[in-house]
Design brief:
- The complex is a heterodimer of chains A (264) and B (295).
- Chain A is α/β, with parallel strands linked by helices and 264 residues long.
- Chain A has helices at 45-53, 75-78, 89-92, 99-107, 121-134, 151-164, 181-198, 209-214, 233-237, 241-263; strands spanning 2-11, 19-29, 34-38, 60-65, 68-69, 82-85, 169-173, 202-205, 218-223, 226-232.
- The termini of chain A are far apart.
- Chain B has a two-stranded antiparallel sheet with strand order 1-2. In chain B, strands 3-4 form a two-stranded antiparallel ribbon.
- Chain B is globular.
- Chain B has one domain.
- Chain B is mainly α.
- Classes of the chains: A alpha/beta (264), B mainly alpha (295).
- The complex binds adenosine-5'-triphosphate (ATP) and magnesium ion.
- Residues 11, 19, 21, 39, 41-47 of chain A line the site of adenosine-5'-triphosphate.
Chain lengths: 264, 295
């Protein structure tokens, strides 16, 4: 379970180009929740995930996972509890390390690392088995460097790495955005499969309304750093793309109206 | 080139090769251009000089030198990671500070070590002729360092080091504190450089505060020559390449020094210029090639 209480995040606070990226967000995520997050460009979706992961410090508020207050934890320490897949396929893996070395690095997520061999021979069969699930033939390429893989293959590998050790929370930030439609669908299926199979608590940012509706048990919409819509269970399953689009236009219309008032 | 000059070049290539492996760790693996080495090489020599003239066992002196180098590297890395000083500037600051520190350690700009024990004594006592003892020692020691560094880079921490240089965001997301890894990596690099400094001082029978000038350039030249000639496809290959590159580089210098064109001949003091030009050419060649293709 994750609890975000009154999260506030500024960029360039106090300067002329101050941006309020997260504006007093409070969110309670239940164990096993799969939440999809939508919102227009600049709504604060990435900022929200980055604040949870500890990439950015927050100005005020509290972040708890389970009964641990992690607000003051540095990013690397939070990795014990949080796994991530980024939008950029290059960010998730180490290009110069082999597939098995990448998996070995991920297999130690949040644990102490020492002078033992990075890739242990006893783990290889486990890695192969896990790679087989991806259905990409990577189980036969353990020694190839990750830099040789295509974007989709790298993203699938990153998905696997993120869940090799079960995280308390999985954060996916538009992790399909850089992939072609067919590959995106494959990685999406994989996401659903892994999340269901391992019962992962997941936050997934997406620009695809369809995906946001199809996947998960809860949907939230962000706008200007605030949660402006939160649907779960039956309410969510009844949503249509048009419902969501009209909500978009509603808030954006408001913005236009505001602009007009300013200009008037 | 005489057989004697070739042997000398081999010897220098091996011992400076240990330094170059240190430079490889920061420059290539950590992506941390580190000029501390110009100070940590004479630091290793200074510590050794003080230790040897105080009657300390040469092998312990060697260890102390490595330890001193590690601390110097740590200082640079802490300035960079914790205090947010740009890496290049941080390393220049440490390098400059080391100049004063080295003079303090030696209580002067240089110390002669001709009368002291050295790490080569056991071999000489064993009956190996003096001019071969140091070469044999360097072959063994360089091999040990090469194997040690390769092994280290395959450990859990070593893999984290590779990943820190390659993709800090990824390795942070895997729970690694990149600051700790950078401090360790730059420390280790400078430990190797100081070990080289200690051996050089023992071999030439003197430690001098100015012996570090141009270390980084020689290290870079070795790394680049090695990559070009020997390749860097895998970690073991890349590490061995650095050592090979260093030997080739020293051989080339020995050849250049013997060169005479009419009244012109290359002076030892010209070497920094030649090396700098070499590194510039190697570094800019890919960019220039691209530009030429576009035209
Ligand atoms: N590192 C940063 N420095 C300064 N401003 C930032 C930074 N990251 C985000 N912002 C700003 O914060 C606001 C929210 O950005 P964020 O990246 O969270 O949006 P997003 O919802 O993820 O948008 P997108 O759909 O385009 O990815 C934007 O106004 C953005 O310009
Ligand atoms: Mg974003």
């Amino acid at each position: 379970m994750i609890t975000l209480s009154s999260l506030i995040k500024y960029f360039h606070q106090g300067s002329a180009n101050e941006i309020l990226a997260i504006d007093d967000v409070t969110l309670k995520v239940e164990e096993g929740d799969f939440i999809t997050i939508i919102g227009s460009n600049g709504a604060g979706k990435s900022s929200l995930l980055n604040c949870i992961a500890g990439t950015y410090p927050i100005e005020s508020g509290k972040i708890e996972i389970g009964d641990q207050d992690i607000t003051q934890w540095p990013e690397f320490k939070r990795a014990k509890l949080i796994a991530r897949v980024f939008q950029d396929p290059l960010l998730g893996t180490c290009a110069h390390a082999s597939i098995e070395q990448n998996l070995a690095l991920a297999y130690k997520r949040g644990k102490k690392r020492g002078m033992g061999f990075g890739v242990k021979s006893r783990d290889r069969s486990f890695f192969k088995q896990e790679l087989q699930q991806l259905g990409l033939g990577l189980e036969n390429r353990l020694l190839d460097t990750a830099g040789l893989l295509s974007g989709g293959q790298r993203q699938a590998l990153t998905m696997l790495m993120a869940t090799l050790v079960k995280p308390e929370v999985l954060l996916l930030d538009e992790h399909l955005a850089a992939l072609d439609p067919k590959t995106a669908q494959q990685v999406l299926d994989l996401t659903q499969e892994i999340v269901t199979q391992k019962k992962l608590t997941t936050l997934m940012v997406t620009h695809q309304m369809k995906h946001a509706i199809q996947l998960g048990n809860r949907l939230i919409m962000l706008h200007q750093g605030k949660i402006i819509f939160d649907a779960r269970g039956e309410e969510k399953s009844k949503l249509t793309v048009n419902d969501l689009l009209s909500k978009f236009y509603a808030v954006q219309g408001e913005e236009l109206a505001d602009d007009k008032m300013l200009l008037a | 080139m005489s057989w004697y000059a070739a042997l000398g070049a081999l010897e220098q290539g091996l011992v400076y090769g240990i330094m170059a492996i240190g430079v490889y760790l920061t420059f290539r693996i950590l992506d941390f251009p580190d000029l501390t080495v110009d100070g940590s090489l004479p630091l290793g020599a200074s510590i050794t000089a003080l230790a040897l003239t105080s009657g300390i066992n040469p092998f312990i002196a060697l260890l102390l030198a490595g330890f001193g180098g590690f601390l110097a590297g740590m200082v640079t890395a802490i300035l960079n990671t914790k205090l947010k000083v740009l890496h290049l500037l941080a390393s220049i600051l440490t390098m400059i500070a080391l100049y004063s520190i080295n003079i303090r350690i030696m209580d002067g700009p240089n110390i002669s070590l001709l009368a002291t024990d050295t790490v080569f004594d056991p071999l000489i006592n064993f009956g190996v002729p003096g001019y071969l003892a140091s070469t044999m020692f360097f072959v063994a020691f360089a091999a040990l360092i090469v194997v040690g560094v390769i092994w280290f880079l395959y450990t859990e921490i070593g893999l984290s080091l590779l990943a820190t240089g390659d993709n800090p965001q990824m390795i942070t997301a895997q729970g690694v504190n990149t600051h700790t890894i950078i401090i360790l990596g730059v420390g280790l690099s400078n430990a190797l450089v100081a070990l080289a400094g200690s051996l050089i001082a023992q071999n030439q029978g003197a430690a001098d505060v100015n012996m570090g000038v141009g270390t980084i350039i020689a290290g870079l030249a070795s790394v680049i020559v090695g990559e070009t000639v020997f390749g860097d496809k895998t970690i073991p290959r890349a590490i061995i390449a650095v050592l090979v590159g260093s030997v080739i580089y020293r051989m080339a210098i020995a050849l250049a020094l013997g060169l005479e064109m009419g009244r012109f001949s290359v002076n030892p003091s010209d070497l920094n210029l030649i090396t700098a030009l070499l590194v510039i050419i190697a570094l800019t060649a890919p960019t220039i090639k691209k530009k030429l293709k576009k035209v």
